[in-house]
Amino acid sequence: MREEVLVFCVMAAVVLIGAVVTKNRRQWSVVFLLLASVLGSLVSGMGIRVREIVEGPFGYLDSALSVASATFFVFMYYKAGGFQKLYNWISKIDNKVLKAFLTLFFIAFPSSLSGFPLASVMTSGVIVSKAMEEDGVEKKKITEIIAVGSVIGMIMPPNSIPAIIASNGAGSVLPTPYNGFYAPLLAISLPVLVVYALINIKTLSKGKGESGGRMGVYPYVALMVLIATIFDGLCGSISYIGGNVPYFVLGAVIVLFANKGFGSVRNCIDSISSSLFEAVVPIAFLFALGSFIEVSSMTGVRGFYSLKILPYDTKAVILFMMAISMGVGVLFSDAIPSFLITYAVFPIGWLCSPVVVTGVSMALAVIPLVSINSSIFEETSSYLGSEALKGKDRIKVAVALMVPIVVLGVLFVVFGDSTLSFLNF
Known about the structure:
With about 425 residues, the chain is mostly helical. It contains 23 helices and no strands. The longest helix is centred in the last third of the chain and has 25 residues, at about 390-415.
């Protein structure tokens, strides 16, 4: 057995065994990714290469700062009552179609900013869940609505973590830091949002917010952040001023000063630290994955992989890796699939555009829907205390959402370098 194959088998085995033992809990995947990096270095005979293990996460540093600052803004905005005030306004809309669209976007908004689904479940999801339950919506349906909205938010710009992971595999081919791939991500997420909202107009148009109370500066802060991220996503190559980080931090600071409910300095610090704590796991996962990728490159695994696929059609290889990633993700969550997706992107060279990377990343985006353990449905029902989707109900919803996401992703890979080049912002 070649040394590169042995190294990969050892590293993959550590992560997969860890996934089985911990039932795919994402926080433990961080530990096993780092452990696999250390063992891969040892098996290759290079000792514990601290440099590569530490250097790998730096590929995700800029993106991690954006995720952290976005999470800071999202949870400060939620604790200050901003999301509740926005929902109070949405719930008063008489037009059922418009209300359905805005409610689903409202659920998705925190995940789109922070990049991970639980951001929506823990903020806008809590608000919508309470309102719908009081309006007589079945608990199982509430779980579905919140879970689906949070996944749609995860594939929306500006901070789609699946796309962030995939873009790392492109290395120096794509402009860095990752800027959100605004146009291609919208081209996938908006059709999914529209279709799901149309199918569920009756449910999404239910729910009544709290009455009374002034809106204050909250809608203007949310609008400011939204417009700023759109500008950064579409015009970042023309005028780059630090990505989205300044906008998120400024928005959070405005909320802090506008809301007297935060009280003392100690309460402010508690609010800030607790909000940033929610970003620890997704950022730690990015950093641990960076170490895993760097060690695999150092030990020759990535080079061996590239050598083996050279004789084959590049698009066919990408589509094959996407399929393998989704298959592995069903059983073992997204640690190994994330690694495989970066490998899918790495060798594509001339095809390495934001559109193609977005298409590849959609294989990662559907894993929370189909993972046997720790799916987004289970996490949502656990956090909200609502009824979980099981059996045929869960499969039906997961497949209905997964199919359009995957189909659009495949189209991006197949046609992204030519027909869809106009989306390369």
